[in-house]
C-alpha cells in the first residue's frame, strides 16, 4: 500500500468502503450531484437485521489498498458504483461491457456492484439488468434512495454472511490471514506448531472483530479484539497485535465520541433524522440507550491515559515493520484527531512528531499534502506556531527548486494559511472577536525575523502570481508594522516595489470597482490634530449672551464624569463660506524613504440625519513629501457650506497609490474620537481700510490713536469694507467705559500699561446711530464709515500736566438678516487711544463784585503752553463784558475774539459779567439766595453755570487743520468769596438824594448846613421772604491812606433814626429807609447802608462794636458784596 | 554545549537570541524556537491548572525537553514573570544531561535577573547587556573551539 489516506479518522474503521467511479460522457456537475445524493446514505439502518451500518463512499480508490482487506477490512472496497452517461442504446451496450470488465477486476474484493446510467431518453430505456439502472436525468432520479439502500443492504448481507461464517467456523485448520507483505513469509512458518495455530486463531479473531465493527456490532467487536489481543500477544505477532490494539482504541473512541459525531451528521441531514423516527428502527436505536452503552464501556479502554498508551504501543508495533509506513502514518493521524478531542495536546504532538519522521516514498504532491495535513492537525491541538511552520514548509515544497513545475498558486495559498500562526493580521480583521486581548498582544509584538521572512515570501509569491493588489497589501504591512526591523536595503526595495506598482495600480483602479480601502494608520502617522479657530476678525460670536444652563447646577459631577473620550466639543465656531484650518502633525516613520502623501484631506460628516449630505463641506486636499524619520506640520483647509455641526472623523490620503482612510476613533494615540465644530450661517465680513496713518493693527486688535487738546471735540470716521458675499444688514456698536492708561513712552504707542486702569472722566465718546443706519444695508464690496464723536471734557486746565492717555474699547458687531435671527454676528474690535496734550493753562481765577450792582468781575491768567498760536473766543460774551485786554480783535463766526496767544505767552483777562446770566438758572434750581452755606453744596452746579456763562473756547490752526475746543474753567479753584460774589445779592439797593437816583454814579454834592434827604430803597429781588431786616446807616470818611474815620458825630447830623428794623420784606416788594443828613463840615463823606448780620449766618460782622477806626484794606468795602452793604455814595460837602 | 539560546518576553517576542557562530542558517533556529513556544504555552497552561493548590513560587521553572527533532533537542524554562528561556542542543551531543541543562538555565536566569535589575534597562526591550552576552557565550561553545580543545 503506497498511497496514504491523509484524511484518515477512527470513524473509517466502522465504515464499509464503496468505490464510486464515473464513466462515459457524463458532465462533472451531474456526477457531483449524483455523488452528493448517494453520499446522503452514509448511515443506513438495516431494519431486518436490526443493525445500523456506516458507509464511506470514495471516488477512485487505489486498487492495491483493497489487498490490505484482511489486515484492516475497512480498507477493502466492498461495493462498486459506476455513474455513467449514455445517450444511445449502443452506448449502453458498450458501457455494459466496461462495467462487467471492471467488476471482474474487482471481483476479489467487492460483494456487489451497480451502474447508474443517465442521459437516456425515456422511450429508449430498457431495464435489462438489475445491476445496471438507466435514468433519463440525474434530477429525475426519483428512486435514488431506494436504489442505494437496496444496493447497500445487499452489500451488508454479504458481509454479514461472511461474519456469520467466521463465527460459525469451528474448524481447527484455518488458513493464516496475512497482510500483503507477509505472504512470502507464510511458507517459512511451521504450520503445525501450536504457536502457529494460535496465531491463526488470533488473527481470525481480530478479523472477526473488524468485520463486526463494520457490520454494526460494536460489542462483538470489542470482545473479539480483547480475545484476539490475548492470543496474539502470547505468540508475539507484533504487526497484528498493533492492528488489534489500534482496533480496540479506535472502537473505544467510536463508542466515546459517537454521540458527538452522530449529532453532527444528523443535524446536517434531516432525512436521516426522520428515518430514525421510524418505528421500525426501534430495534437499532436500542443500541444507543444508556444501559447498552454502559455495558459497552466496560469493554472499552477505560481512561484517556490508557488510550494514549495503547495507541502508542500500536504505533510502536507498526514502526517495527518497514512495510507498515502508511498504516503507521494513518494511525498517527487518527490518534491525533482523537486526542485533540480529549484535549491531550502534548501527547498528540508526540504522535504528530512521529508522523512527520515516518519515511515514505511519496510523490512531491503527496509530501505537500502530508505537511499541510500535519499543519491542520497541529492547529486542531492549538499548536498554531507549529501549524504555521508546517504550512510554510508545505508551501516551500510547492516551489522547491528541483521541481519542474513550481506551483505558485498553492504555495501562496498555503503561506496565507500560515499567517495566523505568526499572529500576522494582514487582512485587517483586527477587530474580530476571535482575537482576545492576549492574542492581540502577540499580534502587536510577534517574532520579527520569522514574520519578515514569511511576508517577504508572500510578497514574492503574490508578485509571481500577478496578484499585485495583494503584493501591495503585504508590502504595506511590512512597512507599517515591521519597518523598525527592516534593513535599509529591504526598506528601499519595498518602497521601490510599491512605487513601481503605483503606475500600474492606478490604471487598474479605474477599471476596478471595488477599490479596497486600507487603513494606513502609521504610514504616515498623524500625531496630533488641532482644528483652528477662524481669524479673530472672522470669528462668529453670539450677539446677545443667552442664559442657557440646562441644569440648575452650574457644575454637576455626573455630567462631568460622563464626558468620556468620545468627542471633543470645540468652543469656537466656523462659519459658512469661510475657509477654516486644521493643523496636523505628520510623522514619517520610515528611516530611508521620503514619503509622498497626496490627496490628503479630512473625512467629515454632517450632523443632519435626514439625508446623506455630500455638499455640506468642501475639503481641500493637499499633497506633501515627508522626509525620512521626520515630522512636519500640515494645514488642511475646509470650507463649510451649510449651517450645521460638522463632525471631523478622520482623514484620507493616498500613499504609494493606495487610498487609505483613517478614523480618529481607531487611533488610540489621539485622545479624541471625533471633533465637532458648529458652523454658523454665512456672515458678512468687514475689513478696515488702511487709510489712516495713526493706527496699529495686528491680527486681533486694531488700535487707533488720536491726539487731543483739552476740551477738543472731534469726529472720527473709521472706514470699513464688506469683503464678503453677503449683505450687511445689522450693525451694533458697544462702547466701553474709557479708562486711563499711562503712556510710558509716547513714541511707541503700543506700550500702554493697563496696570492702573482707572475710570477716565474726561473723555466722552458718542456715535451717531441714525447716520450709521442710513448707510445700511451694506452690499458686498461696499464701504461704510463708522463715525465717532470724541470729546475731551472736564479736564483740569488750571494745573500743568504732561500728557494724559485714555483708551476705550469699541466693539462693532455686525450681521446679516439670516444670521441675526439666529443670534450670530461677527465682531470688529477697535481700541481708541486718546492722547491728551496740554495747551492752555488758566490760573489765578478771581471773582469779585463790580462797582455796579448785579455784576461781577472775573479775572484770570491764561497761559499758552503749546507750540501753536491759540485764539481765545467766546460765544456768550460781548464787547461790554470784556474789561481786559482793551483792544479787541473782532468777531469770528459769531464768536467774539478775546485774545490771541503766541506760544508760551501769558495774558491776564478781566471780564465784567452781569449776574443775570446766572440768575435764571439759579432760580430754576430753587436756589436759596439767602443762605450761603447751603449754596456751597451746589458749588459744582454754580461752577458749571459760571462756565456756561463764560463759554470760553480756544481755536488753533485754520482751514482743514482747524482745531477747536472749550475751555472749562469750572474746574478752577473757587474760594468762598468767589462764590459769594458770583451769586446775585437778594436785595437791590437804590440810593436817592433829593429824590434823584444816584446809585449808578455814587456821587453827590451837597452844601454844608443844608439838610439832605436821603432815601434808600431796598427791593427784595428773590422769591423768598426776607425777614428781620435790621439796617443801619454808616457814615465814614476814607482818609485814603489806609484808615477810615468812623467818628462823624461832629461832622454830620442825622435827622431820623440811624438804625431801622423791618420785620419782613415780601418778595418783589420794596421798603424805604429814609433819613435826612446835614453835613456840618466840608469834606467827602461815604454813606452806605449796612445790613446787620445777626439774622443770617456765614459772614460775621467785623465792623460792629466800638471800633471806630479801621484799616481800609481790611474788610475792604470794595470787596464786600451787596449782600450786606448797599453801594456807597460819596457825598462831597462844599461851602455854599 | 548549546547551539542556540533565546530569551522570550511574556508577549512571546524575542528579547534575545543567539546561535553558535558556525550555524549557517540562523533563521532556522528562529523558526525552531518560535514553534517551540506552542509546547511552552501548553506546558504552562497544563501545569498552571494542576499547581493552583501549591504556592505559585514553588512551581518548577524548568520545563524539560520541549520536543525532540531529528537534529536537536529543545529545552524550555519559564520564570515567574512568564519570561521564557529556550535552549537548543544538538541531538548528537549526548554528554549533556538533564541536570546540566537545568543548571545552565539557572545561570541564565540569574544573568537575566541582573539585566532586569539594571535601572537603565527598559523592560521588554532587547537585551544588549555585555555581562549577559558573556554568560550566554559561555554556554554556546561553537564547534571550532570544541575541536581546538580536543
Automatic annotation (TrEMBL), chain B:
<dbReference type="GO" id="GO:0006888">
    <property type="term" value="P:endoplasmic reticulum to Golgi vesicle-mediated transport"/>
</dbReference>
<dbReference type="GO" id="GO:0005634">
    <property type="term" value="C:nucleus"/>
</dbReference>
<keyword id="KW-0813">Transport</keyword>
<dbReference type="Pfam" id="PF04628">
    <property type="entry name" value="Sedlin_N"/>
</dbReference>
<dbReference type="InterPro" id="IPR006722">
    <property type="entry name" value="Sedlin"/>
</dbReference>
<dbReference type="GO" id="GO:0030008">
    <property type="term" value="C:TRAPP complex"/>
</dbReference>
<keyword id="KW-0931">ER-Golgi transport</keyword>
<dbReference type="GO" id="GO:0048471">
    <property type="term" value="C:perinuclear region of cytoplasm"/>
</dbReference>
<comment type="similarity">
    <text>Belongs to the TRAPP small subunits family. Sedlin subfamily.</text>
</comment>
<dbReference type="GO" id="GO:0005737">
    <property type="term" value="C:cytoplasm"/>
</dbReference>
<dbReference type="InterPro" id="IPR044760">
    <property type="entry name" value="TRAPPC2L"/>
</dbReference>
<protein>
    <recommendedName>
        <fullName>Trafficking protein particle complex subunit 2-like protein</fullName>
    </recommendedName>
</protein>
<dbReference type="InterPro" id="IPR011012">
    <property type="entry name" value="Longin-like_dom_sf"/>
</dbReference>
Amino acid at each position: 500500500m503506497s498511497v496514504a489516506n491523509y484524511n484518515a479518522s477512527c470513524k473509517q474503521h466502522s465504515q464499509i468502503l464503496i468505490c464510486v467511479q464515473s464513466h462515459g460522457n457524463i458532465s462533472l456537475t451531474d456526477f457531483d450531484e449524483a455523488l452528493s445524493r448517494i453520499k446522503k446514505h452514509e448511515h443506513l439502518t438495516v431494519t431486518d437485521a436490526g443493525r445500523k451500518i456506516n458507509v464511506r463512499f470514495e471516488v477512485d480508490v487505489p486498487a492495491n489498498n483493497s489487498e490490505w482487506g484482511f489486515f484492516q477490512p475497512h480498507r477493502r472496497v466492498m461495493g462498486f458504483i459506476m455513474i455513467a452517461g449514455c445517450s444511445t442504446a449502443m452506448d449502453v451496450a458498450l458501457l455494459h461491457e466496461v462495467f462487467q470488465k471492471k467488476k471482474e477486476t474487482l471481483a476479489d474484493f467487492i460483494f456487489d456492484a451497480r451502474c447508474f446510467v443517465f442521459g437516456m431518453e425515456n422511450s429508449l430505456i430498457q431495464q435489462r439488468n438489475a445491476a445496471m439502472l438507466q435514468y433519463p436525468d440525474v434530477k429525475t432520479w426519483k428512486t435514488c434512495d431506494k436504489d442505494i439502500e437496496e444496493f447497500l443492504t445487499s452489500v451488508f448481507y454479504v458481509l454479514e454472511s461472511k461474519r456469520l461464517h467466521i463465527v460459525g467456523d469451528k474448524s481447527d485448520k484455518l488458513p493464516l490471514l496475512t497482510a500483503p507483505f507477509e505472504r512470502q513469509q507464510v511458507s517459512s512458518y511451521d504450520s503445525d506448531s501450536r504457536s502457529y495455530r494460535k496465531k491463526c486463531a488470533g488473527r481470525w479473531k481480530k478479523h472477526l472483530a473488524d468485520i463486526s465493527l463494520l457490520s454494526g456490532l460494536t460489542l462483538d467487536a470489542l470482545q473479539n479484539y480483547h480475545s484476539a489481543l490475548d492470543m496474539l500477544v502470547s505468540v508475539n505477532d507484533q504487526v497484528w497485535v498493533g492492528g488489534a490494539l489500534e482496533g480496540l482504541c479506535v472502537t473505544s473512541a467510536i463508542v466515546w465520541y459517537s454521540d458527538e459525531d452522530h449529532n453532527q451528521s444528523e443535524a446536517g441531514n434531516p432525512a436521516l433524522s426522520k428515518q430514525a423516527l421510524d418505528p421500525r428502527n426501534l430495534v437499532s436505536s436500542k443500541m444507543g440507550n444508556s444501559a447498552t452503552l454502559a455495558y459497552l464501556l466496560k469493554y472499552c479502554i477505560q481512561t484517556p491515559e490508557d488510550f494514549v498508551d495503547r495507541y502508542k504501543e500500536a504505533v510502536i508495533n507498526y514502526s517495527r515493520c518497514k512495510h507498515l509506513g502508511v498504516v503507521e502514518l494513518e494511525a498517527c493521524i487518527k490518534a491525533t484527531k482523537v486526542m485533540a478531542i480529549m484535549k491531550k495536546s502534548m501527547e498528540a504532538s508526540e504522535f504528530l512528531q512521529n508522523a512527520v519522521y515516518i519515511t515514505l516514498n511519496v510523490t512531491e504532491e503527496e509530501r505537500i499534502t502530508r505537511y499541510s495535513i500535519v499543519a491542520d492537525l497541529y492547529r486542531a491541538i492549538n499548536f498554531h506556531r507549529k501549524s504555521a511552520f508546517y504550512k510554510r514548509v508545505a508551501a516551500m515544497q510547492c516551489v522547491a527548486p528541483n521541481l519542474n513545475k513550481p506551483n505558485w498558486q498553492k504555495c501562496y495559498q498555503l503561506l496565507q494559511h500560515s499567517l495566523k500562526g505568526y499572529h500576522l493580521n494582514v487582512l485587517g480583521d483586527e477587530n474580530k472577536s476571535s482575537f482576545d486581548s492576549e492574542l492581540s498582544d502577540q499580534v502587536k509584538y510577534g517574532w520579527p525575523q520569522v514574520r519578515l521572512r514569511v511576508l517577504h515570501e508572500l510578497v514574492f509569491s503574490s508578485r509571481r502570481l500577478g496578484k499585485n493588489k495583494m503584493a501591495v497589501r503585504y508590502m504595506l504591512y511590512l512597512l507599517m508594522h515591521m519597518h523598525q526591523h527592516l534593513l535599509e536595503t529591504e526598506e528601499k526595495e519595498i518602497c521601490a516595489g510599491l512605487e513601481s506598482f503605483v503606475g500600474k495600480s492606478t490604471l487598474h483602479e479605474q477599471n476596478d470597482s471595488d477599490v479596497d480601502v486600507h487603513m494606513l494608520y502609521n504610514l504616515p502617522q498623524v500625531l496630533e490634530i488641532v482644528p483652528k479657530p477662524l481669524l479673530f476678525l472672522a470669528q462668529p460670536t453670539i450677539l446677545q449672551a443667552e442664559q442657557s444652563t440646562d441644569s440648575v447646577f452650574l457644575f454637576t459631577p455626573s455630567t462631568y464624569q460622563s464626558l468620556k473620550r468620545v468627542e471633543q466639543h470645540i468652543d469656537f465656531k466656523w462659519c459658512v463660506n469661510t475657509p477654516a484650518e486644521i493643523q496636523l502633525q505628520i510623522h514619517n516613520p520610515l528611516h530611508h524613504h521620503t514619503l509622498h502623501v497626496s490627496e490628503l484631506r479630512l473625512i467629515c460628516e454632517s450632523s443632519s440625519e435626514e439625508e446623506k449630505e455630500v455638499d455640506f463641506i468642501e475639503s481641500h486636499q493637499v499633497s506633501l513629501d515627508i522626509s525620512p524619520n521626520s515630522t512636519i506640520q500640515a494645514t488642511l483647509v475646509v470650507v463649510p457650506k451649510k449651517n450645521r455641526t460638522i463632525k471631523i472623523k478622520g482623514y484620507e490620503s493616498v500613499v504609494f497609490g493606495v487610498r487609505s482612510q483613517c478614523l480618529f476613533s481607531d487611533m488610540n494615540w489621539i485622545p479624541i474620537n471625533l471633533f465637532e465644530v458648529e458652523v454658523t450661517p454665512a456672515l458678512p465680513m468687514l475689513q478696515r481700510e488702511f487709510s489712516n496713518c495713526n493706527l496699529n493693527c495686528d491680527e486681533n486688535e486694531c488700535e487707533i490713536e488720536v491726539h487731543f487738546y483739552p476740551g477738543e471735540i472731534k469726529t472720527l470716521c473709521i472706514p470699513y469694507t464688506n469683503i464678503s458675499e453677503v449683505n450687511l444688514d445689522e450693525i451694533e456698536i458697544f462702547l466701553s467705559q474709557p479708562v486711563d492708561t499711562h503712556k510710558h513712552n509716547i513714541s511707541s504707542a503700543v506700550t500702554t500699561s493697563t496696570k492702573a486702569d482707572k475710570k477716565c472722566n474726561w473723555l466722552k465718546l458718542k456715535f451717531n446711530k441714525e447716520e450709521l443706519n442710513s448707510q445700511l444695508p451694506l452690499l458686498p464690496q461696499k464701504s461704510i464709515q463708522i463715525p465717532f464723536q470724541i470729546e475731551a471734557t472736564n479736564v483740569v486746565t488750571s494745573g500743568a500736566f504732561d500728557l494724559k492717555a485714555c483708551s476705550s474699547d469699541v466693539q462693532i458687531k455686525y450681521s446679516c438678516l439670516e444670521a441675526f435671527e439666529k443670534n450670530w454676528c461677527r465682531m470688529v474690535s477697535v481700541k481708541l487711544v486718546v492722547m491728551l496734550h496740554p495747551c492752555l493753562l488758566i490760573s489765578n481765577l478771581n471773582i469779585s463784585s463790580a462797582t455796579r450792582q448785579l455784576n461781577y468781575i472775573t479775572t484770570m491768567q491764561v497761559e499758552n503752553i503749546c507750540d501753536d498760536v491759540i485764539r481765545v473766543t467766546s460765544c456768550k460774551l460781548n464787547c461790554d463784558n470784556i474789561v481786559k485786554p482793551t483792544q479787541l480783535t473782532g468777531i469770528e463766526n459769531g464768536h467774539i475774539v478775546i485774545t490771541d496767544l503766541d506760544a508760551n505767552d501769558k495774558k491776564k483777562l478781566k471780564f465784567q459779567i452781569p449776574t443775570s446770566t446766572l440768575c435764571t438758572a439759579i432760580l430754576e434750581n430753587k436756589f436759596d439766595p439767602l443762605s450761603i452755606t447751603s449754596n456751597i453744596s451746589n458749588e459744582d452746579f454754580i461752577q458749571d453755570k459760571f462756565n456756561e456763562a463764560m463759554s470760553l473756547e480756544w481755536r488753533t490752526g485754520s482751514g482743514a487743520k482747524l482745531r477747536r475746543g472749550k475751555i472749562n474753567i469750572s474746574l478752577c479753584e473757587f474760594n468762598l468769596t468767589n462764590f459769594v460774589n458770583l451769586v446775585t445779592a437778594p436785595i437791590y439797593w437804590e440810593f436817592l438824594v433829593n429824590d434823584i437816583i444816584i446809585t449808578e454814579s455814587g456821587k453827590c454834592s451837597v452844601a454844608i448846613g443844608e439838610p439832605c434827604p436821603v432815601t434808600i430803597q431796598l427791593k427784595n429781588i428773590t422769591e423768598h421772604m426776607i425777614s428781620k431786616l435790621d439796617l443801619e446807616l454808616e457814615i465814614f470818611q476814607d482818609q485814603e491812606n489806609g484808615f477810615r474815620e468812623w467818628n462823624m458825630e461832629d461832622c454830620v447830623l442825622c435827622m431820623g433814626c440811624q438804625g431801622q428794623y423791618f420785620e419782613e420784606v415780601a418778595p418783589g416788594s420794596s421798603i424805604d429807609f429814609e433819613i435826612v443828613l446835614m453835613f456840618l463840615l466840608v469834606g467827602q463823606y461815604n454813606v452806605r447802608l449796612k445790613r446787620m448780620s445777626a439774622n443770617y449766618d456765614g459772614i460775621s460782622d467785623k465792623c460792629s462794636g466800638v471800633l471806630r477806626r479801621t484799616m481800609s484794606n481790611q474788610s475792604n468795602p470794595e470787596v464786600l458784596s451787596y449782600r450786606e452793604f448797599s453801594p456807597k455814595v460819596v457825598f462831597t460837602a462844599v461851602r455854599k | 554545549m548549546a547551539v542556540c539560546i533565546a530569551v522570550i518576553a511574556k508577549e512571546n517576542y524575542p528579547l534575545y537570541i543567539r546561535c553558535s557562530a558556525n550555524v549557517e542558517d540562523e533563521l532556522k533556529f528562529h523558526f525552531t524556537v518560535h514553534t517551540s513556544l506552542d509546547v511552552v504555552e501548553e506546558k504552562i497552561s497544563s501545569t498552571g491548572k494542576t499547581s493552583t493548590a501549591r504556592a505559585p513560587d514553588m512551581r518548577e521553572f524548568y520545563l524539560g525537553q520541549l520536543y525532540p527533532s531529528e537534529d536537536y533537542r529543545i529545552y524550555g524554562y519559564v520564570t515567574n514573570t512568564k519570561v521564557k528561556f529556550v535552549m537548543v542542543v544538538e541531538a548528537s551531543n549526548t554528554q549533556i544531561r538533564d541536570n546540566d541543562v537545568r543548571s545552565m538555565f539557572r545561570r541564565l536566569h540569574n544573568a537575566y535577573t541582573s539585566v532586569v535589575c539594571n535601572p537603565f534597562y527598559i523592560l521588554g526591550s532587547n537585551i544588549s547587556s555585555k555581562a549577559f552576552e558573556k554568560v550566554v557565550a559561555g554556554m554556546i561553545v561553537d564547534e571550532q573551539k570544541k575541536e581546538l580543545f580536543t
